[in-house]
Amino acid sequence: MSPEVQAMTPAQRMTAGYCPECGLNLTGINVISHSREHWPQVIPDRADTQEARVRQRMMQNYYDAQVAAAAAAAAQAAQPANPTPAA
Predict the structure, then answer these.
(1) How far apart are the C-alpha atoms of 45 and 43, rounded to whole Å?
(2) Closest C-alpha to 1, from 27, 19, 14
(3) CA distances from 44 to 20, 21, 53, 59, 60 (A)
(4) pTM, 2 dp
């Protein structure tokens, strides 16, 4: 991990597109699969696992935003370039 990424907080890393745990650039990878390298699918709800649950939730939210952006782009691409005005 670069010194710049290492100096970031986990939340800052996630906002910048890096894994909050290890700092891997998440561009072009399956974020959910990568998160499973760090945490199980269900993390026990205990005080000592709170930070892990927060970081896992960040990864899920990042993934959800990627999916929403891809769906919006696909919908935009499906629109005709010059729609005919309604009569």
Answers:
(1) 6
(2) 19
(3) 19, 18, 9, 17, 17
(4) 0.76
CA–CA dist 54, 11 (Å, integer): 9
CB 12 within 8 A of CB 56: no
What pLDDT is stored for residue 77 in this prediction? 85
* Amino acid type, 36: R
- In 16-82, where does DSSP find H-type helix? 31-36, 50-78
CB neighbour list of residue 62: distance below 8 Å, 6 or more residues apart: 14, 17, 26, 31
